[in-house]
Amino acid sequence: KTKLGGIYSALMVAYDEDGNINENGTREIIRHNIHKMEVDGLYVGGSTGENFMISTEEKKRILYIAMDEGRGQVKLMAQVGSVNLKEAVELGKYATDLGYDALSAVTPFYYKFDFEEIKNYYNTIIEATGNYMVIYFIPSLTGVNLSLDQFGELFENEKIIGVKFSHGDFFLLERLRKAYPDHLIYAGLDEMMLSAAVLHVDGGIGSTYNVNGIRAKQIYTLAKGGKIKEARELQHTTNDLIEGILANGLYQTIKEIMKTQGVDAGYCRQPTKRLSEEGIIAAKELAEKYL
Ligand code: NGF
After folding, report:
1. For the chain, what is the domain count?
2. Which residues are marked as active site?
3. Which residue puts its alpha carbon closest to atom 12 of ligand 1?
4. Is the C-beta atom of 41 inside 6 A of ligand 1?
5. Residues 6+ apart with CB under 8 A from 204
6. Ligand 1: distance of its center to the CA of 283 in Å?
7. Domain with 30 in it: what CATH number?
8. Partner of 270 at 20 to 30 A CA spacing, among 49, 134, 200, 248?
């Protein structure tokens, strides 16, 4: 289980101008993450992959490409969660057959599912696949919050090995760390890596690691080694970059920055809008200044 810790890029996907998967570009993104960003793992099918805007077949294609390109070089985690539980099961089986080290699933969203329903959702995916599961907890996008006790109840299923914690509630994060020292906790907000590492999380999963992976890993390693001042300096620079990315358009800007790093990162899928000419310039300036 602990073998699954480390820094994972929430994998970006290159889409062409018509919104189709650009396979070669996506393979370039994967190689860039492995060889240039030196991440420990790839989180495939997450928010950053624009996963909730694409079809089941496209999701499978991306799962396949990431496995084909990354196999044996990095850890691979497949986000298979969906409000369509049958789809989640289908993707979970597919990813498990491909050899993914673990699955992850976003808490079911849009409808107001109660906790029993959420628990049943996770147990159903696990029962159908037999694979490990990491809860994808991102209340800002799903509107789904979970309490410490509810995490405890979910963790009663021994296949649920951890949580990707994309949330700013560090009281809850600390309580989880203390109560579940053997579960994996991944920091999900890249701008808070330092604070999360100080609380001794087991790694991080994030979008900005596609372009800022090296620095993120340094923050994580320095903070865990007690070198807080050095880690803080790097987090300041990182957050100057993240602030600029968020102000300019999150995924579009990361893709544009990747292009400056020599990667054919393509475009975002509609309804996400294109960057304007000014936006493209702003992305290039961020890359020049901070990377
Ligand atoms: O992209 C979002 C949306 N959050 C990501 C991450 O939590 C989601 C985070 O890296 C993720 O890992 C995934 O793709 O599934 C932010 O982009 C980053 O911290 C900048 O705010 O909130």
Report:
1. 1
2. 136, 164
3. 206
4. no
5. 7, 8, 186, 187, 188, 190, 193, 196, 197, 216, 220
6. 18
7. 3.20.20.70
8. 134
